[in-house]
Amino acid sequence: MSRFFSDKFSSLAPYVPGEQPKDMQYIKLNTNESPFPPPKSVVEAARVEAQKAQLYSDPECSLLVEKAAETFGVKKTQLLFTNGSDEILNFAFMAFCDPSTPAVFPDITYGFYKVFAALHGVPYREIPLKEDFSIDYRDYLGVNATVFIANPNAPTGMLLGVREIEEILKSNPDHVVVIDEAYVDFGGESCIPLTQKYDNLLVTQTFSKSRSLAGARLGVGIASENLIADLNVIKYSTNPYNVNRMTMAAGYASLCEAEHFSKTCAVIEKNREYTAKKLKEMGFEVLDSKTNFLFARNEKIGGEELYQKLKERGVLVRHFKAERIKDFNRVSIGTLRQMDIFLENVRQILLEIKQ
Ligand code: PMP
After folding, report:
1. How many folded domains does the chain comprise?
2. What pLDDT score does 3 carry?
3. Which pLDDT tens digit goes with each residue over 55-65?
4. Residue 120, SS3?
5. 200 with 172: CB under 8 angstroms?
6. What CA–CA distance (Å, rounded) separates 52 from 73?
7. Is residue 176 part of a domain?
8. Which among 40, 164, 200, 230 could disulfide-bond with 137, CB atoms 3.0 to 4.6 Å apart, if both were Cys?
């Protein structure tokens, strides 16, 4: 830290992204990316736009917004595109939280919420998940705070029903409820339709997972017009050109690829169920996932040990050190071939430790 760094950030613990080691070729199942490249039309759209990269991008993302409004069944004024969904979440912490409006979120959830809260000096309260790692919606009724819920949750993968979320919305009419739907396309049900009914709901989604565009950085917020207007104040006060030309064109082309989208999501869901079944056969407890990852533990081996042994064998998964989940590993769902290699390595490791 230099002597120039602002005191207000000196104790900030930044978010730690999943590792990207370069020492060897890994089967990378640690950051919930899609194993499939984006469709050709998406790559081509980005290539064409790159030829106009000397010009700023459209700050209103007009064409993309028009296509997204049609896709999501909302008005154009109910949408805001951002540089990944991390950016819309950051905007939400800025726009809807302050020292007198704290944030609440589960104790086990997306690690960035805590970081955003600390970054913006927002007090927060973590609500423990139930013993079975599910969210009890009743814990969020009338909480007098801005609510952040990843649904499905991460890293558990577990889904909360839209009806329960509606109860949370109803009981917090004077506070914003943010539903982070980064993983909703793998078997979850979206809350987007509720944005027509509740002016306190912000739904966030990403193109990083189900649309194979993690490296392009595209996220979107869907909410009532007034919430989007607030978020636009933040956007135009930080980075008006937050979505670059290539990404904007890729996002548009991606929304035009409805069939490719549903097919690849279905493959991931199928591979997930296959992997969960095989893991259970090997004695793992596997949480019920509606995402592109599994969260699993096995009493025969510690979470960290399994993570290390898999890494030595060229398979990367994600391990979290937090006490409640230290026995687990989070495994992104890849191609069937990747999952078979992962499963075979797990099998060998379990055999090894038995001897
Ligand atoms: N929400 C959740 C729950 C996530 O796991 C992630 C991915 N790390 C994000 C949001 C942010 O994803 P992105 O910025 O790539 O859209």
Report:
1. 2
2. 95
3. 999 999 999 99
4. coil
5. yes
6. 31
7. yes
8. 164
State the alpha helices, DSSP H only, in 187-324.
225-238, 245-255, 258-281, 303-312
Run of H or E residues at 339: helix 336-354
**What average pLDDT does range 219-225 have in this prediction?**
98
110 lines ligand 1 (CB under 6 A): yes
Q: Would you say residue 354 has pLDDT above 80? A: no
Are 107 and 195 found together in one domain? yes
CATH of the domain at 133: 3.40.640.10
Burial of 297 (0-12, 13-18, 19+ CB in 10 A): buried
Average pLDDT of the chain to the nearest whole number: 97
Is the pTM higher than 0.90? yes
Instruction: Please give the distance, rounded to the nearest whole angstrom, from the Cα atom of residue 182 to the centre of ligand 1.
Output: 6
Burial class (CB in 10 A: 0-12, 13-18, 19+), 300: middle
Atom of ligand 1 nearest to the CA of 83: 14
Last residue of a domain, one of 222, 240, 256: 256
Nearest-angstrom CA–CA distance, 62 and 124 = 35
Q: Is the pLDDT of residue 20 over 90?
A: no
CA-nearest residue, atom 7 of ligand 1: 182
Q: For residue 94, what are the β-bridge partners?
A: none
Which of 256, 282, 306 is the last residue before a domain boundary? Answer: 256
